[in-house]
Amino acid sequence: MDARPIGIFDTGVGGLTVVSEVMKALPGEDIIYFGDTARVPYGSKSKETITKFSLQIVNFLLSRGVKAMIVACNTISSNSYGELVKAADVPIMEVVRPGVAACAKATRSKVVGVIGTEATVRSGLYEKYLLESMPGARVYSKACPLFVPLVEEGWTDNQVARATAEIYLGELLDKGIDSLLLGCTHYPVLINCIKEVAGEGVTVVNPAEAVAADMKKLLRENGLESGRERADGHTFFVSDNTPKFERTCENVLGRRYGAVKVDIESENCECPCCS
Question: DSSP characters for 196-215?
Answer without folding.
Answer: HHH-TTSEEE-THHHHHHHH
